[in-house]
User: Fold these one by one.
Assistant:
Number 1:
Amino acid sequence: MNSVSPESGLVVAAVLFALGLGGVLARRNMLFVLMSIEIMLNAAALAMITAGARHHAADGQVMFMFILATAAAEVAVGLAIVLLIYRRRRTLDVDEAREMRG
Amino acid sequence: MTGEDVIILLPLVIVAAAAVAAMLAIAVRRSHAATAGIALTGLAAALAEVLVNLWLKKGYVGHLAVMDNQALFVIGLVLAANLVVGILSYGYLSRRRERAEEYYVLLLLAALGGMVLAISIHFATFFLGLEVLSVSLYGLVAYERGRLGVEASLKYLVLGGTASAFVFFGMGLVYFDRGSMIFFWVDWLYGQYGPGPLGLVAMVGCVMMFVGIGFKLAVVPFHLWTADVYQGAPAPVTALVATVSKGAVLALVLRMARGSPWAGYYFGDRAVYYSGGVCPSAPVFWILAAIAVASMFTGNLLALRQRNVKRLLAYSSISHLGYLLVAVLVSGAAGATAAGFYLVTYFAATLAAFGVVTALSGANGEAESLEDYRGLAWRRPALAALMTVAMLSLAGIPLTAGFVGKFYLLTAGAGAGLWALVIILVANSGIGLFYYLRVVWAMFERRATEEKELPRIGVATGVVLAGLGAAVVLIGVWPGPLAELVRAWMGGGW
């Protein structure tokens, strides 16, 4: 039953988080940046579940539900903003969003 | 959740109900005045309820939240700032837009998020408060839908979302290591085993949490979004980002650093060496100290070369958060009191400054360039006087609130023996003088060029601005009563 150790779950979560962070830093398409943020949030949720499993408590899973819901809210707002930008500039390149400097 | 819990949380319930009522009212009939009325009434009612709650009911709500004096104080501050921003927004939006009703729903939700942060003693409430506050701010920043606003909102969203992910992952790691998500219980476990070194997992978790919190507070090196968001957002929203968002997160950091009712027992009441709360360790102390110093210098030095008033205020806010971190490092009752007082003065002066920016912003464009302020003293003496008072207070000139606030910070820092930080704080106040006085200087210059039409100011806006100016001066001249109040409320206990 307990063949998977909590530590290995944490490692998976850390790898996921690193992938998401790498995506935010390297991707230039706004949609992929949003997806990368989503991956990071899900990595955090996985870490919560792993931690809950380690302590045999449901708290981690409750936190997972919270993170799931708020991540959806965040991405909904994000997509609305991306849509606004696309209508205005006809591009999804994040490097185009740089009118303000200094 | 019992009936008693609902009474304890009544200020939050009122604001949440007002948000729902505003949303329903929009569905029935679109009316700017009616929606604004609902929102402002809700905020005012909640503010009145805070005063009632002070005597009526305080206490813990399960393991998730606590309504103590500090929470009530911060909630009061958040509500008052939101009320001011709401009134300023009404004039601002009615000059510019046909449809502005949803703005007030977002405003109420931002207040709600700040209030949840103020009562949080558990990672779950911390997380929910942070998200409710942040997501409504993303919407507010983009509300004008101009090029700059949308661009600012996207930057804020991407960096803010990343910061949230850092905070949540850090929480997960701390929970993994400690087996509890309650701030003071985490603390209590340390107490049981002695405040020894953190495990590697918890240490990484603490650092990640502080990375995310650093983003929200806009301290160096996580400040890159600040100037762009300040510039791109509508002026009243910028005021909200500068005050409510940062103040509520700082209050949470204070609570985390303070730990628990038991922290004093384990670490001594006047915790000179940063009792640490959730993350008690020497490296965390040194990292925070380095962040404070870097924020003070970077904020002040970058502000020197700004010609845009909103960007200038953005960099100034970075340095002010650096000052406030000194109080966090002092920790304990002394640190919380100094931080509470400084927050009041910073809120009043910042709201006054952005209030002037808002009042000068007409239908076509905001008054953000330093050029827009040239000769203001000869055309709008009252507004210029208010801006002068706000700038002098932010600079920390005697007889203004900012001076007294800095004085309390310095006293607290010196009391805890943080001499290096105290000296750096004083030096940075000197640097700050230059750019604050440049704004004042510009306003008193004689203007030779053609004059632009200035927007009219409504009665409500005028009253609020006058009140802010009076508060800044009054606190500066006669700080005694407020100091007593802050000591009683932020000093801990019920």
Note: Chain B touches chain A at residues 123-124, 127-128, 131, 134-135, 138-139, 142, 145, 147-148, 150-155, 157-158, 161-162, 164-166, 168-169, 171-173, 175-176, 179, 181, 201, 227-228, 231-232, 305-306, 308, 311 (CB under 8 Å).
Number 2:
Amino acid sequence: MNLKKIMDRVYEIDLVNASDEELMEINEEMGLALSLEEMKKMQAFFRELGRNPTDLEVHAIAQGWSEHCSYKSSKPVLRKYIFGIESKEAMIVMQDDAGVVEFDEDYAYAFKIESHNHPSAVEPYGGAATGVGGIIRDVLNMGAKPIALVDPLFFAPPDYGEKLNPGIKHPRYLLNGVVAGIRDYGNRVGIPTVAGITYFHEDYVNNILVNAGCLGIVRKDKIVRSRVDKEGVKLVMVGGRTGRDGIHGVNFASKILDEKSEEEKQAVQLGNPILKEPLIHLVLEANEMGIIYGMKDLGGGGLGSVVGEMCHAGGVGAEIHLDQVLLKEKDMAPWEIWVSESQERMLLAVEEENIDKLRDLCKKWDVEMSVIGETKKDENLRIFWKGRKILDMPLEFVMAGVEYERKYKIKRMKKMQEILPEPKYREVFLRLLSSYNIASKEWIIRQYDHEVQGRTVVKPMQGLIGYETHGDAAVIKPLHHSWKGLAVTTVANPHIAKINPYYGSLYTVDEAVRNLVSVGARPHAFSDGLNFGNPEEEEIMGEFFESCKGLGDAARALGIPYVSGNVSFYNEAFGKNIPPTVVLMAIGIINDIRKAVTADFKREGNIIYLVGETREEMGGSEYYRIMGAKSTVVPKVDLGETKNRSEEILRAMDESLVESCHDVSHGGLAVSLAEMALGGSIGAEIDLSPLGAMRDDFKLFSESPTRWVCEVREENTEKFEEIVKSRRIGVVGGETLKIRDGERWLFNVHLNIMRERWKNALKEYIG
Amino acid sequence: MKVAILQMEGTNCEEESYIAFKESGFEPEYLHINLLKKGMLEKYDMIFIPGGFSSGDYVRAGAIFAARLKAKVWNDLKRFVEEGKPVMGVCNGFQVLIELGLLPGTDGISEEPEAALATNESNRFECRWVYLKKSSDSIFSKHVDDVTTLPVAHAEGRFLADKKIIEKVEEQNQVVFRYVAPDGSKPDYPWNPNGSVNDIAALVNSYGNVFGIMPHPERAFFWYQHPDWNRVKREMGDGWQIFNSLFREIIEAKNR
């Protein structure tokens, strides 16, 4: 690589005269993570300008063109399926850092889910913590007050016993580190963590997934856009200082993990919740005063992405003086300052007459600020360093980047379903209760503060105090003066998606709807977290394509928009890709939180109903997994049924006819009933004969979609049956869960035995 | 009744605390430690230190908040307490009061901390609901039911002190609330969520005007904040009773 020093810490790179080989050498040495075609495109641009670029210019382009910033592999597919689902209430969709949707006449909610996978795989504690920090800023910069966090996590099983690849850490270590990172950040920053997933599958052994989502509330007239459309507006950095931590995080995120990843810890940023907490106050106060013209958080891609995106979206240019940026390390080069992903920083666009007001606020909250430049009329980006111009390029070129119609191949599995000899029901049932994907996650959930802010009116764990079960969704009451609430849930079904990504997506959307309806909320908006392997492999791109198609088809049929989202590719290491992992963060609206319903059985003598159809579709089920049985027959969703059953249950709940409700998912009907019984600390007697002629293991353990269990008072049964298409299957009462099919008894298990199995299974490994 | 709700970086329960005071009839005001100057506390009738992670609690919980208060307004604060004005701390606020030497305050104010809120026996942060049994009447508890439920959310809440101090605390009836099992018996984990000595959850000083509590009354102020609201009917949350008790006692004392 030929370079020439042109001033202190700035080099000119000889790109114009480089051969293809030299181009890739530059790519490698500068850590750009670009392809040869991209390098050539860059070269052509500078050949046309008739000059060589500075190192800053090369880094700026690489940042703008990274997968993480440009969505170059995913955009064509997203545009086709995910974008553009109509909704009257969606206000800002897939534009800024978080989606914004109408809450009531005066207020809107903002939310988004995002991945922080690669950093967490290398440094679980710091990676997870900054994942939380980053998603909070995404919501905050819409002007919204963050009121809830969610955290879906994916690991290899905690008892994983195979030999680990070099540099790969045991899932137990990773799980403990990630949970501690989320706990220490979320608790300190004072935002309740109210929902999440902890999911185990062998294929995450080399590449764990850490997704984090945040929900906020904002008065409509205080919504801030991540854009500036006017010249002469000052650009101000507030919050943390800029350091070398997190350099090349986005390029890192767009690469495959390998042994060397451990050496790339510099690409993991460091979070500081105690810097963030005053920053939240400061930003919300400044916004209330009306002095923020535009705002964007510094996340992936750092200052470079933020200045670029903010100005490009508003159609203006910018002039930046990099020597004005406050540094942690004095000897940083301009390119390092430009791409650093140090945490706890925001870029505010503020008009000159308001700068002093902002300065006073910063003083009060002990937050540092620095004016680093201003917007300009033409659409060029110009960067100065100690008075000398070291970058001058049209923003369009840096930001528009590249897009690929990547080749894809759709893998179809032959339909087959092994039929097992009829099992011992009691034994299988207890094994399911202690399987990692079903067993109690209380040890994790209680390490997160889900009560701070006092808004959590339906908790993540539901039931009698001390006996709580997993709830389907949490309910937040965002406004002091209103009974209206927001329900929050997260869902993912990699076991099903691995067999058939299209049906996996349908199932995941259906489950999101189920969870929200279970607490009495109407599904309202989604944020999609798409985690996939290496998109350069045609089969992986095929998985992505099918997953998005399924997401699009399901949400379009139900009229629920995706308003924000995130794509994480290259979740691959040592030749192993993760299963296609679509994570949904789903928000529902409940008009009156006093009508919210929880999952725990309430009272002896109440009648139990099963809503929805049970079928012999065992592909991806926990039952077949623990039995080691094969099936590619995955559960199929009828979206018309999803819609009808949801409407019926919501109507019954609105008329206060439902005492408890829980969806049927992992482990099937048997597990749903067990969880409801555990939460209420009261048993039930169930007769499966109303489900018709089918073997009892299918009735008990099938994970067919669009099903719920509802508890109804005897005196309300007539009204309930009129509204909800359902089958009466039993009665609440006693200290055991007794299940029979007509005359044939299947099992009778005491609550204490169920609780022991369910509560202790994970704790033994991680507690 | 003007209440100063103290803030510093990392306090994070001030908004729900503000609502709790306001709805109970007080006039709460936020007061950031960066704006706090000598002589400022005089204009308040009460000081409240909210929960959170002041300064991150990267050293002993509450230590930095206490050190900064001492450096800025220690004499004012002592006068405030000596005058008999109420001071209340919840969770991290309780930790601050102990670090300041205002609690347990067996002989009024001590210049050095005489107790600690140590790391939970479970060795981790836990967020759960607990039952509390009233152990003594004070202005903070007079109108509180015998048994209430409140949430805890902390990693450091195990009250520890040497034997003499504990004896004196008990002798002087300074324990206001104790953790209790749902059936009223002595609590094991998780009913005593942190392993606190003598199941101590809340204390008042020997003067009866400085109160520290680990569970969060401000998070159980309204009935719908309770986890069992669809099982147990309440007009207001159990935490409200503490704020209400204080308000009634102070107003009644004024009218006497």
Note: The longest helix of chain A spans residues 538-558.
